[in-house]
Amino acid sequence: MTCVPAGSRRPAGHAPDRAVLSDPRSSVAPSGREGERVSSDLRWAVTDGPAGTAAVALPDDGPAAHLLDRAHGVGFWCSRQAGGCGGPLVLEAEDGVRPRFRHQGDTRCRYVGREADAGPRYDHLRYQRALAAWLAGQGHHLRVQKVPQPDGRTGLHVVVDDVGQAIEVQLAPLPDTVWRRRDDRYRRQVRHVTWLYGPAAQSAGDTEAAVRGVAYSVRRHRTGLLVGVRDVDGGTRWVPLGACRLTADGFAAPGATEARARHAERAAGRQEAARRAARCAARAAQQALGPGRGRRGASITGGRPPAPDLHPLPFPR
């Protein structure tokens, strides 16, 4: 099978040729501004149509690319859901050359000459599809809103109305102050909010784990997702998303209950240590005043120094 020559066109909606051998001269040349670095390798596509969400990433070797081509015989598209043009793509896999997707002919698309920009914008589709299937399998109805992020990635705000909950898929770094504002806003709208932190958002996950005792990381794994249950000791227990459930009480994952119990035990220990330190300080201050002095304050509390005020945590529990 041969590639579609540059300049040829297909009828709208026509599936692209499943070509795997190509002449490099038929590829679209990069068209970046002078002096700007561009990439000629388009690595992402979808297999379910111009506005599809079934995203695939090309493997690095030709034989694996051939297998991908045979597995998705309908074709590949530049998805509008990732900001693309919706046009069909040709898979090129020459011997000794890294495989890539290519637009047909002289297609006008934001990714022609900017192919490397596609990766971050396709990334959320793989999370979205797996998460939607997981929720639908439990009988939930969901609404998905895209959350544009400064580094070009797209986060997901998933609202599950039948249980009054929201799931936040955070794929870009997030400062603590921004996390706090968004978390507060979402918690005013629904009963429970669950954050799933991608590889680039781990610092925000560290904050939540320190405050609430547990945070959830998320990673792509083949066509599904893995959820990492993180505790205050820095440990992470990885489980398939299918092992988790969304219930009326929130997001339930293996190991989360134990992580919260460990956090509560640590918090109780810190509070007791603070009380002991306050009692010691009060006794030392009373002794420094000398006999007969400072007894008035002690009598009010039955001979015990007053306990220190314990201020609430800066974030919701």
Any overview of this molecule?
With 317 residues, the protein is of the alpha+beta class. The chain folds into 2 domains: 90 residues, no CATH class; 193 residues, no CATH class. Helices cover 29% and strands 21% of the residues. It has 6 helices and 14 strands. The protein starts with 43 loop residues before the first strand and ends in a 17-residue tail after the last helix.
Structural class: alpha+beta
Oligomer: single chain
What is the count of structural domains? 2
| Strand neighbour order, sheet with most strands | 6-7-8-9-10-11-12
Number of strands: 14
Unreliably modeled segments: 1-39, 297-301
Provide the residue-averaged pLDDT: 81
What is the number of helical segments per DSSP (H or I, 4+ residues)? 6
Beta-strand residue fraction: 15-25%
Helix and strand sequence: EEHEEEHEEEHEHEEEEEHH
- The general outline is elongated
Radius of gyration: 28 Å
Please give the alpha-carbon distance between the first and last residues. 60 Å
The biggest sheet amounts to: 7 strands, mixed
DSSP helix fraction? 25-40%
What are its keywords?
317 residues; 2 domains; three-stranded antiparallel beta sheet; 6 helices; 29% helix; disordered N terminus
Task: Describe, in short, the structure shown.
This protein has six helices and 14 strands. The protein is of the alpha+beta class. It has two domains: 24-113, no CATH class; 125-317, no CATH class.
